[in-house]
Automatic annotation (TrEMBL):
Protein name (database record): Putative diguanylate cyclase YegE
Source organism of the structure: mine drainage metagenome
NCBIfam families named among the record's database cross-references: GGDEF (TIGR00254), hemeryth_dom (TIGR02481)
InterPro entries from the UniProt entry: DGC-Regulatory_Protein, GGDEF_dom, Hemerythrin-like, Hemerythrin-like_sf, Hemerythrin_metal-bd, Nucleotide_cyclase, Rev_trsase/Diguanyl_cyclase
A Pfam family assignment: Hemerythrin
Gene3D superfamilies reported in the protein's UniProt record: 3.30.70.270, Hemerythrin-like (1.20.120.50)
Length: 333
């Protein structure tokens, strides 16, 4: 059956509906750029967060702030500033998918919700694309060219939380860090800055500390256990004076180990004793430097873990292995 077309006649009730829809749109959209405003963006974030909880999905949030936007207003007037904001809105809308949401959340601040994006790398690619696209000059009606940039902060849900305002605040903090470090940069939440556990340096494997001389092997094991104990305490937030004493005990334990080596070299007439003594002093100084400041953020703690474990591995690899080889060559063990 073919549907007949009925001529449309406007009525007062239809007019009221259109008026209601118009004001409803204005309530949730930015009047300048036409983008969703903060209220609508938070509503869509809450909808996504409900999906995250229910279906174990995820999304990325990018907060974007224009660099030197106030200077544009001061030098060219607010009409020029409005033109820049509209141009930025167009760049953002064209840089993401239809399923994503771009909003203007403040004067020169924008937010992007990347639906289903669960990796730091994927979100970073989008942010880099956006920042690069905004590097092109914007031409005003009078022919003046304006060049601006942007700084971005990235968080992921569920990794960084399940609350919209919390995620936006976290992304803003990451963005401010990027802005303070220089223009046109990307910042990440502390959770995303932390190196993945799989790539974090691990303690020396037991086999690497076994050289066949029991007293050295036991000392290696004790040194490694001491280092891991201090690192675990730092991970748990312990910055007490007791921890400083444990660091001093670690240094003393390493000094005893070095003295054991030096005594063996002297007893069995192994060459290079003076060089070893000098190297041991340098190693102790380096160890103190590694643990010199116990107020770490997560990224710095990952570096400390690497440096401390590498400190021990390097010593065993470059000094003790050679010493044991010389002792065995002399038939001592």
């Amino acid at each position: 059956m073919v549907e007949k077309k009925v001529p449309h006649t406007a009525s007062a009730s239809e007019g009221n509906v259109h008026l209601h829809n118009h004001f409803g749109h204005l309530a949730f959209h930015d009047p300048l750029t036409g983008l969703p405003n903060r209220d609508l963006f938070v509503e869509r974030m809450n909808r996504e967060l409900a999906r995250v909880r229910r279906y174990e999905s995820g999304f990325a949030l990018i907060m974007l702030d224009l660099d030197e936007f106030e200077a544009v207003n001061d030098a060219n007037g607010h009409d020029a500033g409005d033109l820049v904001l509209c141009d930025v809105a167009n760049h953002l809308a064209s840089a993401v998918r239809d399923v994503d949401t771009v909003a203007r959340t403040g004067g020169d601040e924008f937010a992007i919700l990347l639906d289903g994006v669960t990796s730091k790398k994927e979100a970073e690619i989008v942010a880099l694309k956006i920042i690069k696209s905004m590097s092109a000059p914007i031409r005003l009606g009078n022919g003046t060219q304006i060049k601006i940039g942007a700084s971005a902060g990235i968080v992921l849900s569920p990794q960084d939380g399940y609350l919209a305002e919390q995620l936006m605040q976290c992304a803003n903090q990451a963005m401010n860090v990027a802005k303070n470090n220089g223009k046109g940069l990307i910042g990440f939440s502390r959770n995303l800055q932390t190196a993945p556990k799989a790539s974090q340096p691990s303690p020396p494997p037991p086999g690497s500390m076994i050289l066949g001389i029991s007293i050295l092997d036991e000392q290696h094991k004790a040194m490694s256990n001491f280092i891991q104990g201090i690192i675990e305490s730092l991970k748990n937030g312990d910055h007490s004076t007791k921890l400083l004493k444990r660091v001093e005990l670690l240094v003393e334990l390493c000094r005893i180990h070095f003295k054991t080596e030096e005594d063996m070299m002297q007893l069995y007439d192994i060459e290079g004793l003076d060089e070893h003594r000098t190297e041991h002093q340098v190693k102790l100084k380096n160890l103190r430097s590694i643990f010199g400041n116990l107020n770490f953020n997560e990224k710095e703690l990952a570096k400390l873990t690497h440096d401390a474990n590498e400190w021990l591995c390097e010593h065993i690899r470059e000094q003790d292995t050679e010493l044991v080889a010389q002792l065995k060559k002399k038939g001592v063990f």
